[in-house]
Amino acid sequence: MNLLKRNNVRPNKLLNSKWTAVTPANKEKHFLVIKLCATATPDEPVTHVELEAVHSGRVQILPWRALQDAAQWHQGWKT
Known about the structure:
This protein is mainly beta. It contains no helices and five strands.
């Protein structure tokens, strides 16, 4: 039995989705997916996403599957 909690995430639904970091750093708690990144061609599957911090505007790139980890990310903006 798998005890890891996962967010149900489909890569084609990620653009403009909202996320909350479970452990915020530098007052960056709420994030918005601003870009989907594929490897070489538009027909390739999504591999990474660009997240923009609402507080600072800082952008970070991470594998989209990292958003499935409920220990690090919550779907939507939570308080």
